[in-house]
């Protein structure tokens, strides 16, 4: 009986009735906006994120004349994407620290699998707007971002703007956590609010990680606990890669 | 042959092939988010606006202790809701003058048909987020806002938080304009960018107007021209009222 | 007995004792500052707005190299121009939505009567600063703005910077409203605070309108009511054109 | 022959033809706005500052419950009060360091001659808005501020809000500088831009100074030079006190 | 030969000549400011961070009346703490995303080892100001923050403000990375700029982790690589705990 | 018996036990950071300011192409440099009026003794960060700024970037005040908070002043009182010049 089989044999403690290693129902619908070069609505259960990839000529000042492109990301939550309404960041006059942290993470993750030289002197901006939040918005955003980014690169190839696909590898992200003492995959909001440890993993198609952010919310976590989370994440990522490919019609 | 029949007899000059007094295909889908007390996705052709109505206890400081409620609105466009990406207002650190103008208009329009005393000391915030923009986002937002607001008031009635429906009348909004010399109803982006005159009308179920904003974009407009636009708006509003009622299951 | 004669026959209901179609005492004093290329102090009764027109070389980035000029406007109220002191916008760190709405309106109105090609690659900025506010500041500002703008264009002609007057038509603005059930012209603050409907009209010398902003403050307004306001505005504009011309020594 | 007679005997080097110890033509017109509890337009030659004093109930948080009042000041320049248009601070989103420095100086100066206990728990805000700038705006502002402040205190006495005049002494301000090697009084813009040393003195009716700000613009200044400026300031202040009293009808 | 012995047997590839598992020279000098309830200057080689812990009565609004305290942190870099001068954040008008990310990390780390109930309704703010930056500023800041926090808690115990030490465990942080293909401990700037993977670990005295942030800078990292970094971090933390205790005189 | 001997003969009234004309213990330690072209930690008693001088290519836009350089300064206080923690300006989103006033003063003072032509088209930015505040931070900052600036100029000479030393004269600053009726030199915080008059003098090696800022805190000050302060400042400056030279190894 494998590690996961053992976990799953337990009477589940998850509010949703899911098994510890079970993802929520995940869908990635592409082509959801008319204008963006790439777009998708990615749903992880009730979490829904609208992702667009926009191609623009030119690069930020610090890259001028270096013969390479740039990929960056912005993230936002609609004010009533949450249980109670949050203040609109545009009205507040600034993005919160959490927002900036998340959009930096998405941008770094995308750049980890893009050949910026092959992109040429242009920028792709990934906008991730949370329509509905039920935990895991940043991992859903990253998973969808790669799909939108791939579509935008395909567009550039088809339009013969570039001749080589700058996408080097597949990438997806998933959250794991220790809930009620048990390592579980893909936390929803109810689990996330009560998790003892919360960890986000960004993993490439080759199986390497490019980002890990793990936080002990109420207590520290042991090496074994962390390893169990890492195992769950690897297994989850493989499912996400398949869903991404399916969304892209591969 | 009536005024509109005469207009429609002309070989249409509209890029979409619509008749001068023809609305785009309009849909109002309610209940599109899990958390908001009222919500809808309103589409005027390719223009799509997600509207939520959020009920919160308490009122702004200037109304404290006056025994009445408040209805306000916020408006935003997703960065890639437009043909080319616009800067995210939260990143820019402020809302543009246009955004503020529109959200003030939506708020005033809603308050025109709400009995704020009957609402009690609570606030309903209408969030109008443009998912895709193809002209007429503010009028689509107002039309959807009334639907979301009605749902939120129904929620308060059902929950017995209030005993009397604060909604006094129905309200909807529509744009009209003079395009290629002809008065037309419900401008799309291509028409809007080239219109000689652009006018937005907010009209109540009783047939009165509560807001008119008319602008001569390239030249002034005559009294006759304005009257033709006003006629179109009245006729369009009647269609919108029916669509709103249908969306609410009336 | 004409429509206006009938109105005026009524025992007036206006706090100021004015007849329904009677403007306040209006003065436009030009040349009130030493430095601006055009300037005036425009008074509509107790409302006083200092307007300057400043010519600057160059145009905003979005017009670079297009062989045309630009006219824009900024608006502000001195903190104690009002009955009770308002917060200074420079100290608050931003302009209110109302301020932005008004300055956008002034700018659009001026551009409606200027040949931007004839202006060449230069910008004229109209600053409208309210010294004292008693209702109708935006319409007084527009009426004065045209005078200051004309002076600045004359200056450019006299200095032989341009060879053709870019001013295409005259333009003025006036507010009307329904006060105590009666349509009245040129609302003062006391009327404005209690008006059922408030409408601002920007009208050109040729009799066309370029902007209409009408708001039902407490209830909607009927088509007939709106038409009565429009009639008042047309009549008022003719008086304003004469005052503008007199101020310019024509 | 006194020190000043000696100076004046010299062929004047001042662009305006004034004698070294000669003030510009100075006027203080009171009651220039309808709403403010105190107001004046103060002119030092072409420099014109509109000053209002506004009484408000309550004090800033740091003074709550201490049984005393507060006097504070704000300063602004209209965008075209200067030779070339300056950016509007409200549009820029912040007040410049210079603006803050000046308004802090005005506030401190006023508080130096006010018995804050006698004022009670209320605040008087002095707004100094420069209509036209030709050097010496801060000293004109202070000189006018005392007049507006006195009027506001008189208003409180007349209304029997307070029973004792909180004004302890008279106060006025004047600039002096070394221009073309000569100490001169009340610099205009042309002198100010070329002065070797620029000094502002705030002086009370009792002859004491409450603020001195002296700056060597191109070189340092000697003790003797400073003393000559201080002498000029004392003489100028006496003239200003008389003008303030005359403005107040004393 | 253990894992680390094997690593160290290699001819070192570190620019500093350090062995792979060797910390820089680390010092923690306490009591470096007169006013703060706790303070230290923590140096990791050339990286120097001044840390103060300030006790204030009261808690943030979201904790009012909940019978518990709060620990938060702020982080900043002096403009010339870096090789080339960076823009001062106070002058720029906002904290960068990086700054916010780091100060949130420091705050979460401290709260992980504090019994907020035992702290009572007061807040301890940890200020971490980087005097000189040579890599690892956030880990140095966390390591020093625990020392300053402990001092502040001791102060509260000695002053009998609280009766029970709210510090539950020791905590320290260290960076590790893969440099030139080799896992190394405590990266300096030269290593950090060229590292293939960069990971920060926050570890408690009990050996658990409370935060892990790992980033593949140029490529992803394998599970084995990550485990090597985790091993280095555990070993490094033990050294840091001893240095913290020594600094506190334990 | 001289003026100062007479003062000193009095039983001292200073909290620190210092004589009226006695400076605090002053130290200037140079070379305190690795990266800055010039740096020092300047201490006036418990007041400690870290000063760095950073050389950058290029000048601000208003000096482009004028063949001269620029010297500017920025000032900040660490949040807990004071008795009670102050809000971090970067978190507040703006620099206070006091901060801006001080950094403008430091910049003007430095420029008064620099030949900007000799500096060439480069900028030296002086950062003055207060590590601990016990009164006199701005005068300590100026005194240290000249040392750091001199070091940066020496660096440019040694590197043969410039061929002539742009430093024209020495400069230092000192505060004086009237405390308990007595003129005293170099006020500490306890004296400063209770001083009747507070004056800052910036004085050059040639004995001229370049800046004087004197404020009557509780009452005005007489001409005689001011002269006594000026005498103290001149004497104090001579001591500071010696300390600056010693710090520079002259």
Automatic annotation (TrEMBL), chains A, B, C, D, E, F:
SUPFAM superfamilies: Ribonuclease PH domain 2-like, Ribosomal protein S5 domain 2-like. It catalyses: tRNA(n+1) + phosphate = tRNA(n) + a ribonucleoside 5'-diphosphate. InterPro entries: ExoRNase_PH_dom1, ExoRNase_PH_dom2, ExoRNase_PH_dom2_sf, PNPase/RNase_PH_dom_sf, Ribosomal_Su5_D2-typ_SF, RNase_PH, RNase_PH_bac-type, RNase_PH_CS. One of its GO terms (biological process) is rRNA 3'-end processing. CDD domains: RNase_PH_bact. Residues 22-152, 169-235 form the Exoribonuclease phosphorolytic domain. Its EC number is 2.7.7.56. Keywords: Nucleotidyltransferase, RNA-binding, rRNA processing, Transferase, tRNA processing, tRNA-binding. One of its GO terms (molecular function) is tRNA nucleotidyltransferase activity. Phosphate binds at residues 98, 136-138. The keyword Repressor does not apply. Belongs to the RNase PH family. Homohexameric ring arranged as a trimer of dimers. Phosphorolytic 3'-5' exoribonuclease that plays an important role in tRNA 3'-end maturation. Removes nucleotide residues following the 3'-CCA terminus of tRNAs; can also add nucleotides to the ends of RNA molecules by using nucleoside diphosphates as substrates, but this may not be physiologically important. Probably plays a role in initiation of 16S rRNA degradation (leading to ribosome degradation) during starvation. NCBIfam families: RNasePH. This is Ribonuclease PH.
